[in-house]
Amino acid sequence: MKNLALAVVILTTITACKTENELKNSNAIAVTYPETKTVDSVDTYFGEQVKDPYRWLEDDRSEETGEWVKAQNQVTGDYLANIPYRQALKDRLEEIWNYEKVGAPFVEGDYTYFYKNDGLQNQSVIYRKKNNQDKEEVFLDPNTFSSDGTVSLGAISFSKNGKTLAYSISEGGSDWRKVIIMDTETKEQIEDTLVDVKFSGISWKNNEGFYYSSYDKPKGSELSAKTDQHKLFYHKLGTPQKQDQLIYGGTPEEKHRYVGGNVTEDGKYLFIYPRTSTSGSKLLMQDLSKPNSKIVTILDDFNSDSSVIENVGSTLYIITNKNAPNQKVVTVDASNPSPEHWKDFIPETENVLSVSTSSGYIFARYMVDAVSQVKQYDYDGKLVREIELPGVGSAGGFGGKKEDKTIYYSFSNYITPSTIYTLNPKTGVSEVYKKPEIKYNPDNFESKQVFYNSKDGTKIPMIISYKKGIELNGKNPTILYSYGGFNISLTPSFSIANAVWMEQGGVYAVPNIRGGGEYGKKWHDAGTQLKKQNVFDDFIAAAEYLIDNNYTSSDYLAIRGGSNGGLLVGATMTQRPDLVKVAIPAVGVLDMLRYHTFTSGAGWAYDYGTSEDNKEMFEYLKGYSPVHNVREGVEYPATMITTGDHDDRVVPAHSFKFAAELQSKQTGTNPTLIRIETDAGHGAGTPVSKTIEQYADIFGFTLYNMGYKVLPNKTKAKIKG
């Protein structure tokens, strides 16, 4: 402990190659880093020894790691404090952020509920009003959970009659949750708090109790220790948690990393979804209308993803990608639910399908080159109409109860703030319900979709957004953002922060690269395991397109991504350090040889494979793992790694080790910083105040390292460092 305390005050400068006069005449800020100790840690994979000199940073509970975090944050804070327009960015972010945000209403029992944020509240508040009345009241205010907004509201779920609410909270951004049960009439807590709940929904069985999921609390650190046997429980109201019934996951045969459960709206069926990874699920069913009924297996393999979206009596409606990579809807009777009895209801098309139900209809939401198209079907499979959307962008919602008379949906794109619409399901007529009053004019901006070829010739779509009238001279500050994994699709959505970026003349570009779900399972699989390099190649080709078409140049290009997107940034900057000026990897998966040893990381093996699978997989992972591919004598882009000290999904050790590698090997004057948010996790529930600070730091760091001494919208003069 004492050795590290001494070590953190020993500073090594990366600017020794420049004199003070040279530094004053450039945009560079002299940076000194804490000296990070190394240890003799070696792992052997298939006969090959791999050093892991910063293994000690994996211990999130140690005093040494805590001191290192403090020292790094001091260096980063000092650097950011020298950026002259950091406060101006924060002020503008606060100004544009400060507008009322209201969510779509939903009816539970005798009340209509909705979320609302007055503007800069750290967490949105749940309001309610008596049905058919106008007077509203605060129902649940998460801002009262903690003084600094770091305790956030997670899932909420009402009993069938709406008289009881179960809601989860997260402390410090952790994925570990507590569940609180309250009487909705009195707004009083009525039972002891449920603890140690993780990766869980809350699904009620009528008014009697609810199902939830969790792991046994791990030995060692709850923020980093491995968790791999998920269990589904039933909590009966009025009983202590220790008496909760274990429904599934308690035996070696039932060992899965994720187990979810949900009950149909009529309370008749429970469906259980065991998974060993983030892709592929079994499907099990229990008839709750029959006492002590057995759990029936519908699908017993992990070769597809299938989930029940609705039932009408014993007829089940299932969305599946089994023999349908772009997904389809099938029906089957619950008495014989196995796949050989499935009948196509909404057949597969060339576009990826997702579905929701409301008002006695099924809404088929398609992605057409990452843009929304919505069709309305009745329960006989008849197409009622295609919904006329307000424009080209992303439509979400269209979900509710069967008895709902009005349907709500939202629409936005990269330049249009999210607006809520009502839809009359009988006539198909949409009307504006809530349009935000924001100090931002979307008419000043434009988005365009382009297609470019990746390294292997695959055509990739990309949406580029910017202020109207920018000159394509190769000198526009540009952020290239993407994700590329886990079947997640990046569809157009509005971001207050990106609006501020574009106000500064910035370009914001989002390519829909392989590994995502924009073109179905085949698109996803084309970016997994031994094909993961396709993802990086697609991203690199997007950067080259922007440069070749004079949107920007390497001196004015930043790359950004979070989680799996943090891996994307880390791999891109280590493979092509010459390509971009700034790199912002957030909460990234950066140690590809050990990611599966932390928390639920082994569940990501469908996308990544693991270093223990076989020699070929080990060598492939080692070949792109950012932590293992930082080289001596290379000038890497100006880098600011961001993470949270309570991130128990992608543990911060990934970011810690990557920062240590870069700081020890970086050549030249580009800074390599790490910004470690305290009492913060993977991102969900982050207070608005912290989010604004993060963006002010990210944009300030990015622009400053592109050579801007003042904000771009103040002057076009730039000084190269």
From TrEMBL:
UniProt GO cellular component terms: cytosol; periplasmic space
Protein name: prolyl oligopeptidase
GO BP annotation list: proteolysis
Record field: transmembrane: none
Location relative to the cell: Periplasm
Gene3D superfamilies linked to this entry: alpha/beta hydrolase (3.40.50.1820), Prolyl oligopeptidase, N-terminal domain (2.130.10.120)
Similarity remark: Belongs to the peptidase S9A family.
EC number of this enzyme: 3.4.21.26
Domain annotation Peptidase S9 prolyl oligopeptidase catalytic: ranges: 492-706
Biological role stated in the UniProt entry: Cleaves peptide bonds on the C-terminal side of prolyl residues within peptides that are up to approximately 30 amino acids long. Has an absolute requirement for an X-Pro bond in the trans configuration immediately preceding the Pro-Y scissible bond.
Residues of the Peptidase S9A N-terminal domain: 34-435
Main location per the UniProt record: periplasm
UniProt keyword list: Hydrolase, Periplasm, Protease, Serine protease, Signal
